[in-house]
Amino acid sequence: MVGCAEVNKSVAYSYSPLSYVNEIEPIFAHNCIRCHGVEVARGGIYLTEYDSIIMVSDQILEKIENTGNENMYRFLNSPEDAYKIRDWIQKDNMAYE
Ligand code: HEC
After folding, report:
1. Mean of per-residue pLDDT scores for the chain
2. pTM of the model
């Protein structure tokens, strides 16, 4: 029964905070700013600058849910991108760096 102890070993979980500069800006740049940039701002939403992004964080959270409705989730490359944006807004206090 010695082997059983192995199974119960807890794995240390480390969460590293996401930052706008490193993880979030590239997601918006690749997937969103062609419709939410300076020249074209669909829905009046600008996703090119940190200051304008944090002002609409609630709308972003709503629109990146995978609801199957008309939303912005479909423009993301992967579910991970949606998780990252959500964690950055909700857990990481929209850290800049
Ligand atoms: C192909 C063009 C296009 C792309 C790419 C795009 N959007 Fe949009 N977006 C729109 C249009 C059109 C609207 C206005 C209609 C609506 O609200 O659905 C909009 C509206 C929004 C809104 C405002 C919703 C509200 O509450 O009024 C948010 C937030 C948003 N988009 C976020 C994003 C994010 C985040 C991405 C990248 C993952 C993205 N969009 C990519 C076209 C686009």
Report:
1. 90
2. 0.87
